[in-house]
Amino acid sequence: MDAKVFAASRPGVGGRLGGELADAEEIEATVRATRSDSTARVDLVVVHPPGTPSPSGTARWLTGREIGVHHHIRDGSSEDFGRLARSVLGRAVSLVLSGGGARGLAHVGVLRALEEAHIPVDFVGGASFGALIAAAVARGDDAGAIRDATQKPLVDRRRPLDVTAPAAALTGGRRIVSVLQDGFGAARIEDLWNRFFCVSSNLSKAHVQVHTTGLLWEALRASVSIPGLFPPVNSGEGDVLVDGAVMNNLPVDVMKSLADGGPVMAVNLRADFPLLAEDLPRHGVLSGWKVFGRRLNPLADALELPGIIDVLLRTTEVGSVLSSKTMEQRADVVFHPPVDDFGLLDFAACDQLIDAGYRHAVHVLEGGGLDRLSR
Questions:
Q1: How far apart are CA 124 and CA 258, in angstroms?
Q2: Predicted TM-score (pTM) of this structure
Q3: d(CA 80, CA 118)
């Protein structure tokens, strides 16, 4: 483990970091003058008053400073100080969550099992729907809160798809943006209690884009940008970003590069998906008007065809199957919840998916997973 030097500071009431940069300069000057190893990484520990709901303004402290990693802890919180201690000792517990559409709700069941087994999650990251769940974990939500937070926008309401004239995508993206903004507001990644990242796929430069700073909802919008379904996202530098699952649906390698050692858990939701193909023509020609006509005719049998949304979702999911298998080999504990019987948009099966993830995780942990995490 690389050497580290820690600079600590206490923000004002409410956990805000603004207005105390002068104090930070004094601390930093002391650190620079006293550290013996000039190559040691400098981490920032921000101590918040007890009961602080969430940090804010962290970006101001990070800009222009050579900070390796920053840590948010609440004064008097044994959980927060435990997280800091594990990071210092190179024993932070990391969790990587894959994409998978509605099947991603199984992640919530895995989280519930980890909570019951008293396994902490210090660093969390993911792709696509897994990024959404990971963001909630990093914010400090437990499994119950995450289940309740997803129930309203994804289960009780209509699907977040606002169909528009097909230009860059089949939908305009307004509903998914609304869901993300309602869920995460103006929070920034730097202000999350736990360390977090998510990935999107940079089509312009053909590489995995790793999001570790900036507005949380914007990073998530890029990570869930299913090609053809949601409009691509501008990276801010003129690059086109789409769903992270296209290039890396299980970014264990990214976690390994960012984490300071410690065990890595991964939840991979890869599964078979029975796309209908009975009436799919082998000659490759299909009239959409004929399909719509059959659907409007109450006397005609429905055609056994894969829907366009199902095809787009499945294409995104299978694009990185081989890389996901490779990524699994780099994780210490891997979960494979049995989600084959659920559709990629089957959000109505919320509780069944959560239960499937929970039962599977309990089985894995009791079958040796706990031992592998404690090594």
A1: 11
A2: 0.86
A3: 14
Residue whose tokens read 């789409």: 242
Residue whose tokens read 């430069």: 205
What's the CA gap between 151 and 323, in Å, rounded? Answer: 31
User: Dihedral sign, CA of 245, 139, 5, 7?
Assistant: positive
Catalytic residues: 128, 243
Tell me the per-residue pLDDT of 50-85, one tens digit each, with 9 for 90 and over. 999 999 889 888 887 778 899 999 999 999 999 999
Return the structure tokens found at 117: 């087994």
Residue type, 279: D
Q: CA–CA distance from 143 to each of 112, 147, 369 (Å)?
A: 5, 6, 20
Amino acid sitting at position 238: G
C-alpha 104, offset from chain centre: 10
- Two structure tokens written together for 70: 């920053």
Strand-pair partners of 233: 241
**Count of all residues that appear for the chain in the document:** 375
pLDDT of 362 reads: 97
Q: What distance in Å separates the CA atoms of residue 229 and residue 249, rounded to the nearest whole number? A: 17
